[in-house]
Amino acid sequence: MSQKKIVVIGAGPGGYPAAFRAADLGMDVTLIDPAAKPGGVCLYVGCIPSKALLHAANTISEASHAHEYGVQFSDPKIDLEKLRNWKDGVVGKLTGGLGMLMKQRKVKFVQGVASFSSPNQLVVQLQEGGEQIVDFDHAIIATGSSPVLPPIVEGETSLVMNSTSALEIPDVPKNLLVVGGGYIGLELGTVYASLGSKVTVVEMTAGILPGADRDLVDILKSDLDIRFEQILLNTKVEKIVQKSNKLRVTLSDLEKVNSNMTFDKALIAVGRRPMSKNLGLENTSIVTDEKGFIIIDKQCRTNESHIFAIGDVAGEPMLAHKATKEAHVAVEVIAGHPESFDPLAIPAVVFTEPELAWTGLSEIEARQKNWEIKVTKFPWAASGRATTMGIKKGLTKIISEPSTNRILGAGIVGNGAGEMIAEATLAIEMGTRLEDLKSIIHAHPTLSETFMESAELFYNTSPHFYSPKKNK
Ligand code: FAD
Ligand code: NAD
Question: Please, where in the chain does CATH 3.30.390.30 lie?
Answer without folding.
Answer: 348-458
